[in-house]
Specification:
The chain is an alpha/beta fold and about 350 residues long. The protein is built from ten helices and 13 strands.
Length: about 350
């Protein structure tokens, strides 16, 4: 029996995407072998590869000005690879600080140029409980780019209105909320996302990049780190993680089959409203630290009255078939990740458990 999986990532995958993989695992489309065994230069894999790109392009309504790339190394590698491509020792870039991952991105950029903090939402307790308001942004119009993290898995905050940055290219780490709803891709010069939240398994990074911005990348770095190298080779410059891309294809096809991102957004908002509703009903017991205007629909964090109760909550939830609820080691408490594969019924089951837990331990 499958558990209800609230893990923050690698996260649960939609059951139809997994069932499709199971059916094709040993014999892909009558070829006599698994897709994992096919050459990345062969027509069987190439068809899957191109379908994944086509599906992502369709679902996000990616304009012809932008191109989809598949890379390895995780989003953490992109913290370094973006400034490696676009910064020089005298160039600056603006970073909007909203959590651990934006801090890590800033640290990597310091190896290549002069990044600056253009806004921060950290409070006196050294925690992030909101995203910066537009009026708080102190942007440099001469910056090479502005970097943001759209959703913050550890602190449970999310940008619900993307920042206005003028004519400076906007770069976004969307690892934990890409495909949670439709977005206007044209507003971004560069989007990157580790797949292991909403798109597929770990081991692959999706990139959507403006072609003009991509062309500005440095040519004095190794080819393997240039985005243009992958663009010119349809992300097949070297052997990609073919099975990870195959599974991404399965997930993207599932999203299309269920009604696209409008349906996905409707479910995600319903899930978030159900869970935050339960937290707010029992506000003296479930304490949510995030300001309501910045609450994430992907990662919901809260604390119980004591650490012992936090542990009991996680333990009793696991006995009830729900896993992945322990908060990040740096913040403690409870974290519920509501990625696309989590169903509305899964959240209803959690909310029912939460109501009963209050009655038992409150």
């Amino acid at each position: 029996m499958r558990v209800i999986n609230f893990n923050a990532g690698p996260a649960g995958l939609p059951l139809p995407a997994l069932e499709r993989a199971r059916e094709e695992l040993l014999d892909f489309q009558g070829s006599g072998m698994s897709i994992m065994e096919h050459s990345h230069r062969g027509k069987e894999y190439e068809a899957v590869h191109n379908e994944a790109i086509s599906l992502l392009t369709e679902l996000l309504a990616i304009p012809p000005t932008h191109q989809v790339l598949f890379l390895q190394g995780g989003a953490s590698q992109q913290f370094a690879q973006v400034p490696m491509n676009y910064l020089t020792p005298e160039a600056s870039a603006d970073y909007l600080m909203t959590g651990v991952w934006s801090e890590k991105a800033l640290d990597e950029a310091r190896y290549y140029g002069k990044p600056r903090i253009a806004a921060t939402a950290i409070n006196k307790e050294k925690r992030y409980t909101r995203v910066p308001a537009q009026a708080e942004l102190q942007l440099d119009p001469a910056a090479t780019y502005v970097h943001m993290t759209s959703n913050n898995t550890i602190y449970g905050t999310q940008w619900h209105t993307f920042p206005e940055v003028g004519r400076v290219p906007l770069v976004a780490d969307m690892s934990s909320d890409l495909l949670w709803k439709p977005i206007d891709v044209s507003r971004f010069a560069f989007i990157y996302a580790g797949a292991q939240k909403n798109v597929g398994p770990s081991g692959i990074v999706l990139i959507v990049v403006d072609k003009e911005f991509m062309a500005r990348g440095r040519q004095d770095i190794p080819k393997i780190f240039r985005y243009t190298t992958y663009a010119e080779n349809n992300s097949l410059y070297n052997t990609p993680p073919t099975f990870a891309i195959y599974l991404c294809r399965n997930v993207l096809a599932w999203i299309k089959d269920v009604g696209g991102l409008k349906q996905i957004e409707q479910w995600n908002r319903e899930k978030g409203d159900l869970l935050y509703g339960a937290i707010d009903r029992h506000a003296d017991f479930y304490r949510a630290p995030v300001e309501k205007g910045s609450r994430s629909y992907m990662n919901v964090v809260f604390q119980l009255p004591t650490e012992a109760l936090n542990d009991t909550f996680v333990s009793e939830a696991k006995k009830a078939g729900m896993v992945g609820l322990k908060g990040h080691r740096s913040t403690g408490g409870i974290r519920v990740s509501l990625y696309n594969a989590v169903t509305v019924d899964n959240v209803k089951a959690l909310v029912s458990f939460m109501d009963q837990f209050v009655q038992k331990h409150g």
